[in-house]
């Protein structure tokens, strides 16, 4: 029994204000908060009301006194073969230059700045400069095409857009500027100015009067000192869209004070991290993990953070681990999808490097299946820590808080409810809380959401309330739209999204349960299960599986035999009700650009419906193949 963590957790719920008042001391305030949490208008929570602070000050300026010459930002690109280390002093100077340029282009407190950039240092400068000015940044993933960008421009209505001539992926240059120009033709909103970082990778035609070159403006502001704009704790720091796995993305709006406190606290209690250590998150600034754990949290904690442009397998599958060795990385953060990519290569690439500095590898974004967890654990011989959260929350909901107390991991479980989150499992039909062990329910969070979570949906309070807080009958409670179970020791297991629950002849089954049982077959590399409408049973499960031996998928007799084996495996593990009506063998599954399985698109295709926006999809050809093989 883990007493220390349990006490810590209980206090965060039952002495909420006392607990968070203490955490608030981890950051610097211009004026201390007057109230810890104003929850007078549920479900809207105002954290640290009356407090005045600045996110950039806490991430950068605060460290100048103690660690000006220590590493702050390590920008590495295996696409352009460049590597540059910025100390806190140098980062401070660059952020001031960027802030001065944005200010000269008219950016003021409360203005939106859209950032559509590859993973280069200037993207970090731009985010931090916005925070410095009290401007609200809205980062759009650099791999998105014009349509997705245009709709986000219309929603954010930025005064300035910061972009680059190009990004690069796997050695292939992707020109961003033409995509941006195309997006601006499609959008009705037009920014006053566009700032372009020219990397010299692709021609970037500039439109006079609107478009500006970063390098030339930077030289005009080399010695700029732009004071931090002190803002209310509740002032929005940024907006960011959810991944769109289940439908139209939601514009998450985040505050300043609560977010800064939540991140500072997470570095201490979840990651057990300290100033001077090095954090390497392999995500992208276009996602929430990039916001929280590439840019803000490591810097708030006074650590060095690695910003990496490139693939995990180029030049070879040792590239990330070489970075760990070279910069003595202590904390690494990635996603199961990336580990599955590595898993296709020889573990020898990982063994080549000295990983002794590493304290652990945290993985988030989708379920961490046992074979993937076991493979990476064996390959690096370090703790592998699953953590479950959402763009909406900004930091983990379920994990193990090793900074409070070291706790045993349990395969298949992201861990326990994190302090501050009053997590409950709810029977979605009756709205009743499920208090017993091993009962399946919707994972929900009793309000107020802790600091750092979304304040609202950008410019749409109604959508915030109706989408998240009204889905469970008879009560105002935040739904994660994930389906889970908790064991007798308080460890949670995510069974899939509530949309993905399949109802076969009255039995409710999580797609994840069926996927896990299929993934146990040695021939299966990856699998997705969706429910398909069936006139007799209501729904039947349909499985799409990637086989290890690609030739097998092409051989009709062999795939029929494998299908039968897979069905038998599900029968033996879960029972015949869960048996998929068909197993379709493919070479790739449709995913979002962040590597998440698009079950929604699979289901649509299976039921003969429109799969939706293909432009934000990683590999539309995967869906075409599915269509063909159905
Ligand atoms: P959208 O909300 O637009 O459909 P999305 O839910 O994929 O997209 P994100 O906020 O990026 O957008 O992802 C959060 C979701 O990812 C969670 O609700 C959960 O379904 C899944 N997830 C994240 N981490 C884990 C994890 N460790 N284990 C299982 N599932 C996870
Ligand atoms: Mg979601």
Write a brief caption for the model:
The chain is of the alpha/beta class and 630 residues long. Strand 19, helix 15 (370-380) and strand 20 (384-386) form a beta-alpha-beta unit. The mean pLDDT is 95.
Strand content: 15-25%
CATH architecture of the largest domain: 3-Layer(aba) Sandwich
Provide the structure class: alpha/beta
- As a percent range, the share of helical residues equals 25-40%
Please state the average pLDDT score. 95
- The name of the CATH topology of the largest domain is Rossmann fold
Q: What would CATH call the class of the largest domain?
A: Alpha Beta
Largest sheet: 8 strands, mixed
Kindly report how far apart the N and C termini lie: 49 Å
Structure description:
- The radius of gyration is 24 Å and the shape is globular.
- The chain is α/β, with parallel strands linked by helices.
- Helices cover 33% and strands 24% of the residues.
- The longest helix has 19 residues, at 556-574.
- It folds into 2 domains: 3-310 and 387-482, 3-Layer(aba) Sandwich (Rossmann fold); 501-629, GMP Synthetase, Chain A, domain 3 (2-Layer Sandwich).
- Adenosine-5'-triphosphate is lined by residues 242-246, 249, 364-368, 386-388, 390-391, 414, 480, 482, 494, 497, 596.
């Amino acid at each position: 029994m883990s007493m220390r963590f349990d006490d810590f957790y209980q206090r965060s719920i039952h002495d909420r204000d006392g607990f968070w008042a203490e955490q608030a001391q981890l950051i610097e305030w211009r004026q201390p908060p007057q109230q810890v949490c104003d929850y007078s208008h549920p479900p809207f929570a105002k954290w640290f009301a009356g407090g005045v602070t600045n996110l950039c000050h806490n991430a950068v300026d605060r460290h100048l006194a103690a660690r000006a010459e220590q590493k702050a930002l390590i920008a590495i690109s295996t696409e352009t073969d460049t590597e540059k280390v910025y100390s806190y002093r140098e980062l401070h100077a660059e952020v001031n230059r960027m802030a001065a340029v944005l200010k000269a282009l008219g950016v003021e407190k409360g203005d939106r700045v859209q950032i559509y950039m590859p993973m280069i240092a200037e993207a970090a400068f731009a985010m931090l400069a916005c925070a410095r000015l009290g401007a609200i940044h809205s980062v759009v993933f650099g791999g998105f095409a014009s349509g997705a960008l245009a709709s986000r421009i219309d929603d954010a209505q930025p005064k300035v857009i910061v972009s680059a001539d190009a990004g690069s992926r796997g050695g292939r240059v992707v020109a961003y500027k033409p995509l941006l120009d195309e997006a601006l033709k499609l959008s009705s909103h037009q920014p006053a100015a566009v700032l372009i970082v020219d990397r010299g990778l692709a021609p970037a035609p500039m439109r006079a009067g609107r478009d500006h070159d970063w390098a030339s403006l930077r030289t005009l502001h080399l010695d700029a000192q732009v004071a931090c704009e002190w803002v209310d704790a509740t002032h929005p720091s940024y907006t960011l869209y959810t991944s769109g796995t289940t439908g139209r993305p939601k514009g998450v709006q985040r505050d300043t004070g609560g977010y800064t406190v939540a991140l500072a606290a997470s570095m201490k209690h979840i990651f057990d991290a300290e100033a001077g250590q090095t954090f390497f998150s392999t995500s992208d600034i276009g996602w929430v993990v990039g916001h929280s754990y590439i840019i803000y949290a490591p810097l708030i904690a006074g650590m060095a953070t690695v910003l990496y442009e490139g693939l995990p397998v180029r030049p070879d599958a040792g590239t990330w681990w070489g970075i760990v060795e070279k910069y003595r990385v202590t904390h690494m953060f990635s996603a199961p999808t990336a580990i599955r990519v590595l898993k296709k290569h020889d573990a020898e690439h990982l063994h080549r490097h000295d990983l002794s500095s590493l304290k652990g590898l945290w993985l988030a974004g989708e379920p961490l299946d046992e074979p993937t967890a076991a493979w990476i654990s064996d390959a690096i011989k370090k703790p592998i820590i699953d953590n479950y959260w959402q763009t909406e929350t900004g930091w983990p909901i379920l994990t193990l808080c090793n900074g409070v107390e070291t706790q045993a991991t349990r395969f298949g479980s992201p861990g326990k409810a994190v302090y501050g989150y009053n997590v409950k499992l709810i029977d979605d039909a009756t709205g009743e809380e499920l208090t017993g062990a091993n009962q399946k329910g919707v994972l929900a969070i009793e309000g107020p959401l802790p600091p750092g979570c979304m304040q609202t949906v950008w410019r749409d309070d109604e959508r915030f309330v109706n989408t998240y807080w009204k889905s469970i009958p008879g009560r105002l409670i935040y739904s994660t739209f994930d389906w889970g179970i908790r064991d007798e020791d308080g460890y949670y297991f995510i069974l899939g999204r509530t949309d993905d629950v399949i109802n076969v002849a009255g039995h409710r089954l999580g797609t994840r349960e069926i996927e896990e049982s299929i993934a146990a077959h040695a021939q299966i590399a990856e699998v997705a299960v969706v429910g398909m409408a069936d006139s007799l049973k209501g729904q039947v499960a349909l499985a799409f599986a990637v086989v290890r031996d690609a030739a097998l998928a092409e051989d009709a007799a062999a795939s029929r035999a494998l299908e039968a084996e897979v069905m038998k495996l599900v029968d033996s593990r879960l029972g015949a009700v869960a048996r998929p009506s068909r197993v379709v063998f493919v070479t790739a599954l449709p995913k979002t650009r962040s590597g998440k399985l698009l079950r929604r698109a699979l289901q649509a295709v299976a039921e003969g419906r429109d799969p939706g926006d293909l432009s934000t999809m990683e590999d539309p050809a995967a869906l075409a193949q599915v269509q063909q093989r159905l």
